[in-house]
Amino acid sequence: MPFLGQDWRSPGWSWTKTEHGWKRIVFYGHELEDNNREIDLKELCSGNNENLFVGDVCELATTKRKKDFYNNNTKSQSLNRLDFSSAIQDLRRFNYVAKLFQLIARSQLTSLSGAAQKNYFNILEKIVRKVLEDHYNPRLVKELLQDLSSTLNNLTVHVGRCVLVGNVNIWLCRLETILKWQQQLNNLQIPKQMCDGMSFNDLPLYMQNKILYKLSDAYDIINLGQATPTLHILSENRTLWKRLCHFHFSDKQFCRNLVLTKSDNVDWKLMYFTLQKHYPMKEQYGDTLHFCKHCSILFWKDCGHPCTANDPDSCLMPISPQHFIDLFKF
């Protein structure tokens, strides 16, 4: 179960940290009560029995609507409770949320309820706006929008519009919005920053090289190498690409896809892009969702949660974006 609560469909409890420890937030009026209460015989025989039954029917109808709401909006509530909307403002969590939305765009659009769709596109709009304003990681968001556009085109043209939940005109409007976002990102111009202080080029070569070794994305290394001739030489270092290959792939995968140069040396840069086509790369995020096996609850690692286990760290399990989606495949 992905969440701890009174019902397996519940998104879990909300907690707040106080000076006396963690306390659970109680939202009065949100709890569903059993409305099958007993009716006293005197009440039944009194002259107010008509109002009594009308009131009971109204209570039962209200309860049913509440239960249907909770049952049909599990994913939508999860997006709200885990606060993905605010998470994109944190650079440590931005890539995680963007990757999660990319996976949803590839394979989970047809399973989203109306409320989940609304939350999905509202958060997606905030992601695009952040990139346009802060110029942060436009390449990742471009890939997300491209996958989303391709999936929608395939579903609305080739597969059939009936597989999508909701009015088809709404989906066509969303597709037009996605195309507008793509144009805005393609026209994005990152201004050159003017500063009088020390720049990256002023750093010693060993420090520039050390920064390159900290990067785990090959495209970041290539883009940084295009800045100056010196960085280009550093970015072509065989040892750098060898380290990158060993970071993302195993030795067994190397043996199956060995790429040699004319002098029988391993071309590690070409090896990396060859392996990338056949095997998934290691994912790395500044902050990730974690699952507590003792409490059965999801939370951001940096936020923590009030675990009651003797050894809380032994109960934690990191949740990748794909694993997060798998949690909802009941």
TrEMBL record:
<dbReference type="InterPro" id="IPR036047">
    <property type="entry name" value="F-box-like_dom_sf"/>
</dbReference>
<dbReference type="GO" id="GO:0019005">
    <property type="term" value="C:SCF ubiquitin ligase complex"/>
</dbReference>
<dbReference type="GO" id="GO:0016567">
    <property type="term" value="P:protein ubiquitination"/>
</dbReference>
<keyword id="KW-0833">Ubl conjugation pathway</keyword>
<dbReference type="GO" id="GO:0005737">
    <property type="term" value="C:cytoplasm"/>
</dbReference>
<dbReference type="GO" id="GO:0005634">
    <property type="term" value="C:nucleus"/>
</dbReference>
<keyword id="KW-0539">Nucleus</keyword>
<dbReference type="InterPro" id="IPR040394">
    <property type="entry name" value="FBX25/32"/>
</dbReference>
<comment type="pathway">
    <text>Protein modification; protein ubiquitination.</text>
</comment>
<comment type="function">
    <text>Substrate-recognition component of the SCF (SKP1-CUL1-F-box protein)-type E3 ubiquitin ligase complex. May play a role in accumulation of expanded polyglutamine (polyQ) protein huntingtin (HTT).</text>
</comment>
<protein>
    <recommendedName>
        <fullName>F-box only protein 25</fullName>
    </recommendedName>
</protein>
